[in-house]
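Lab meeting, item 3. Inverse folding demo.
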């Protein structure tokens, strides 16, 4: 049968537990199996790691391309195919000299996660087995690795794109648009964030702790490379159209597959980039709110027009929203912090003793400020005074101070809990 595991003499089957290298045994999934060719490579410097799903049409030539690329780059390397196929992909890959990791079909990102415990090379190249990326030309990646780069993106737009290789919607709208958005969100300078051909050091890949199970793994890798402060670069690559007879994975399944892939990649942008929407916008809203709250705390103010109670209420709304956004941005920066620098910085700024004491002082002060309004209310027989009186402004300033102090107190607790949890996990 086409999907049976090979049992020919030139193939050996390595049990799972003995296959795991330089990783805890618990790091490997229990439902994967590593198959080895008879001419397996020892001590590879480069690992070419490729997920494959029913690629029997192209896999033999692809493995040959990889071997040619390794030879031209003068580097010892292994080819590791993560195979979830029902056709002869595994058999043909093994016959060509590649290692094959048999794994259930559960998403592109998950395939890479499953492969990590079995990667032996210091440097890792990722891509597709469909002959659209030219793995005969891996020398630029190897050179960049040896220069000290830790994350290397291939760029189709800096290289060449064969006619018909990319749908026009992807080439002229989808990929440039999402690349621009990521560059804005993360202050980066990539030209092709969806290029599947990319390189990363094994150490960085392990530390990256990929979580994405599907297509969004690509965006997660790019974003985390920035958060981790990896030394990154791009190299031009050649991108070819599908071989005759091969149908891309997007076209094999749901016709909306490519839109779904775009949607979950945007989700990765926004989830990992939460601080972009919180931190600086929060500072701006807080500053604008304070410009209204503080001058009006003593009463109405006339500057051409009269700024009264309603303007102050708007200022309180903006200031509270801004403060919470800013504090949420601080938490997001600390949560998505691989180096520990952000966590340490914000823990110092919002030190527990100082923040708790100042929050308590602010809350008590704020609680005292409405007393004149309450006193006046009682004195007038439980009727509110006219809204032009300064006691309203003072009372609202006190309520704002109470709310702000409470937000600072609770977010300080969350920040320190987060820092302690991260240290415990590590």
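The presenter then showed the designed sequence:
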């Amino acid at each position: 049968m086409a999907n049976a595991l090979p049992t020919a003499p030139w193939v050996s089957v390595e049990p799972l537990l003995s296959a795991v290298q330089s990783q805890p045994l618990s790091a490997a999934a229990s439902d994967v199996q590593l198959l080895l060719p008879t001419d397996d490579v020892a001590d590879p410097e480069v690992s070419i790691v490729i997920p494959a799903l029913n690629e029997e049409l192209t896999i033999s030539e692809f493995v040959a391309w990889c071997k040619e690329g390794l030879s031209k780059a003068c580097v010892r390397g292994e080819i590791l195919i993560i195979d979830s196929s029902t056709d002869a992909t595994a058999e043909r890959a093994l016959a060509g000299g590649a290692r094959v990791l048999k794994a259930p079909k559960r998403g592109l990102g998950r395939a890479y996660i499953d492969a990590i415990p079995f990667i032996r090379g210091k440097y890792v190249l990722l891509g597709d087995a469909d002959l659209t990326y030219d793995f005969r030309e891996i020398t630029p990646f190897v050179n960049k690795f040896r220069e000290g780069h830790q994350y290397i993106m291939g760029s189709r737009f800096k290289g060449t794109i064969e006619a018909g290789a990319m749908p026009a919607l992807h080439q002229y709208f989808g990929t440039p648009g999402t690349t621009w958005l990521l560059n804005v969100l993360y202050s980066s300078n990539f030209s092709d964030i969806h290029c599947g051909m990319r390189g990363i050091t094994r150490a960085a890949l392990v530390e990256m702790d990929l979580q994405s199970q599907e297509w969004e793994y690509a965006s997660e890798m790019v974003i985390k490379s920035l958060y981790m402060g990896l030394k990154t670069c791009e190299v031009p690559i050649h991108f070819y159209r599908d071989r005759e007879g091969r149908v891309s994975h997007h076209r094999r399944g749901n016709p909306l597959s490519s839109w779904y892939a775009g949607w979950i990649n945007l989700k990765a942008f926004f989830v990992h980039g939460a601080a972009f929407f919180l931190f600086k916008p929060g500072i701006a809203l807080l500053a604008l709110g304070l410009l209204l709250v503080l001058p009006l705390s003593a009463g109405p103010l006339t500057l051409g027009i009269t700024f009264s109670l309603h303007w102050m209420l708007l200022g309180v709304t903006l200031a509270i929203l801004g403060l919470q956004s800013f504090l949420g941005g601080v938490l997001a920066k600390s949560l998505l912090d691989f180096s520990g620098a952000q966590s340490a910085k914000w823990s110092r700024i919002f030190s527990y003793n100082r923040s708790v004491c100042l929050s308590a002082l602010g809350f008590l002060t704020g609680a005292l400020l409405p007393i004149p309004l309450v006193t006046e209310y009682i004195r007038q027989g439980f009727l509110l005074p006219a809204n032009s009186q300064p006691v309203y402004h003072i009372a609202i300033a006190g309520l704002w101070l109470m709310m702000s102090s409470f937000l600072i107190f609770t977010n300080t607790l969350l920040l320190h809990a987060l820092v302690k949890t991260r240290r415990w996990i590590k």
